[in-house]
């Protein structure tokens, strides 16, 4: 079912109210040394104050749209964060995952379960009223994902802006770039390294799984189906009781849409519980569990499990790096009027 956020006088008042509440929202605002992190020439053209004169309320308007959407459906916050990952890891953070249509990135089977597009499009329509042809869909998605984390209890990160929208969105580009849940650590590291992200970034950004849910099919490789149609654990790295809980929720005849919370303890709160879950052998996906079974990443998992402050600081750094992967700036790309069309 398609979601929309109607533009009524009440809705606009909510957005204005969101602007007034911004000061309170910033209590968790991390001031980063951004430019030390921006390695590529294109990324170096980004700036936190890019819209200071051309559209000074851009961030507040996006935040208002995200807040309004989450008041209706709280699960959209995790969906927006996932949407950004699937954008940045393919063509770079250029909004190309938002494009709809046959052959576009969103049509690839790996992206079929993505959601939250309507929030970005709603924010874009609002920005086209206030600042026509100014704010890119790529920047809106970065801001929406950033705010989704903050509204879930996580840190709000100052991100550089000025991305332009890509002019290519091809389903054939998805699989060669996307990280699969059955990957080994070496395979994940290779995909991240290709985007300029380190093994430390991999561990920190995996913390995104502290919110949201995953369809049963994404961890089906960790179970075997018996002759009577029930599922039994096939992965000894899973806590036995947790494995049985998953098997009961994801029985063989369960619908393809059946999903399970990524974090069984605090599923809607962005915190460091994800890492404590890993140490308790309760990582939902194989790509989660591998972080604690491999010595190259285990110490980092332990550190984040012990200190939420340390996790939040590392998340902030790694999120900024992710948000600058493959960006288009200057005369590259375009500023689209609609995020879902090319």
TrEMBL record:
Residues the entry annotates as binding Ca(2+) 1: 87, 90, 92, 94, 96, 105
Cofactor note: Binds 2 calcium ions per subunit.
GO biological process, any: response to oxidative stress
Positions bearing the site annotation: Transition state stabilizer: 82
Domain (Plant heme peroxidase family profile): residue spans on this chain: 45-342
E.C. designation(s): 1.11.1.7
Record-linked InterPro entries: Haem_peroxidase, Peroxidase_pln, Peroxidases_heam-ligand_BS, Secretory_peroxidase
Active-site residues annotated for this sequence: 86
Chain sites annotated for binding Ca(2+) 2: 210, 263, 266, 271
Sites where the protein binds heme b: 209
MF terms (GO), sorted A to Z: heme binding; lactoperoxidase activity; metal ion binding
Family indicated by similarity: Belongs to the peroxidase family. Ascorbate peroxidase subfamily.
Primary role: Removal of H(2)O(2), oxidation of toxic reductants, biosynthesis and degradation of lignin, suberization, auxin catabolism, response to environmental stresses such as wounding, pathogen attack and oxidative stress. These functions might be dependent on each isozyme/isoform in each plant tissue.
Protein name: peroxidase
Organism in which the protein naturally occurs: Zingiber officinale
């Amino acid at each position: 079912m398609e979601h929309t956020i109607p533009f009524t006088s009440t809705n606009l008042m909510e957005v204005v109210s969101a602007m007034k509440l911004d000061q309170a929202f910033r209590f968790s605002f991390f001031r980063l040394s951004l430019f030390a992190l921006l390695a590529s020439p294109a990324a170096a053209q980004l700036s936190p104050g890019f819209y200071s004169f051309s559209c000074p309320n851009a961030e507040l308007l996006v935040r208002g749209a995200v807040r309004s959407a989450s008041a209706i459906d709280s699960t959209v916050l995790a969906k927006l964060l996932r949407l950004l990952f699937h954008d940045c890891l393919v063509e770079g953070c250029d909004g190309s995952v938002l494009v709809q249509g046959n052959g576009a990135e969103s049509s690839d089977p790996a992206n079929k379960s993505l959601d939250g597009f309507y929030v970005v499009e709603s924010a874009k329509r609002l920005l086209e009223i206030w600042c026509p042809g100014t704010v890119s869909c790529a920047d809106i998605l970065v801001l929406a994902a950033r705010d989704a984390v903050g509204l879930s209890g996580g840190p709000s990160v100052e991100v550089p802006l000025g991305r332009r929208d890509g002019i290519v969105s091809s389903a054939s580009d998805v699989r060669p770039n996307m990280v699969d849940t059955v990957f080994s650590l070496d395979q994940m590291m290779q995909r991240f390294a290709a985007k300029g992200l380190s093994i430390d970034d991999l561990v920190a950004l995996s913390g995104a799984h502290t919110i949201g849910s995953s369809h049963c099919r994404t961890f089906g490789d960790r179970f075997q189906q018996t002759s009577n149609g029930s599922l039994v654990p096939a992965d000894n790295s899973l806590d036995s009781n947790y494995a049985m809980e998953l098997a009961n929720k994801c029985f063989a005849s369960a619908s393809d849409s059946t999903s399970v919370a990524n974090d069984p303890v605090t599923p809607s709160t962005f915190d460091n519980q994800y890492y404590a879950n890993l140490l308790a052998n309760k990582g939902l996906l194989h790509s989660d569990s591998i972080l604690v079974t491999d010595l190259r990443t285990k110490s980092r998992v332990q550190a984040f499990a012990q200190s939420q402050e340390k996790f939040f600081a590392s998340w902030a750094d790694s999120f900024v790096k992710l948000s600058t992967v493959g960006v288009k700036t200057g005369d590259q790309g375009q500023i689209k009027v609609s995020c879902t069309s090319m």
